[in-house]
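I'd like us to work through together how a protein chain folds, taking it slowly. We need material for that, and I hope you will provide a protein of your own picking. Go ahead whenever you are ready, and we will take it from there:
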Amino acid sequence: MARTAEVVRNTKETQITVRVDLDGSGVSDVETGIGFFDHMLDGLARFSGIDLYVRTKGDLHIDFHHTVEDTGIVIGQAIRQALDGFKGIYRFGHAYVPMDETLTRCALDLCNRPYLIWKVAFKTPKIGEFDTELFKEFHHAFAMNLGACVHLETLYGDNSHHIAESGFKALARALRTAVELDPKTHGHAPSTKGVL
């Protein structure tokens, strides 16, 4: 059974279409109108092994906030839909990702109890034209709509670009493990409750 999904979300602020294939090869086709954000989402796809198609048209004449947050919402919803009740997966994942002077750790649980622990401090308020505070907005929207408990922490780092990129890569690598099919679950949700 294909673990794929498509979610479309249209509001007065953003128009978004996202398609995912959890069993893909990390191919991305991303256009949000924000170059640096596209770069981060390309990394999310590549290092998670999830094929990701994103088309976002947002009110960039105002700022990047709605575009970034709403894209996080829809990607989270699409992956959740493709997971079909979290059946048969490993559920947990973690990763340490170094990038030059920066080291970031991510641990996540696909548990249908969304939460975000965010211990990431940027050295600059912007990367190019991108407000670094928007990275938390993306990760929060993504976790809440996926139903994931995500703990993301930059252990150390100086360069804001490296801090952001290592965070997306760590999230991706943790997600890659968590969404993998675990034959020992025999297709059931991996929970003592029997359901997630």
About this structure: The chain has one domain: 4-185. DSSP finds four helices and ten strands in the chain. The first helix runs from residue 35 to 48.
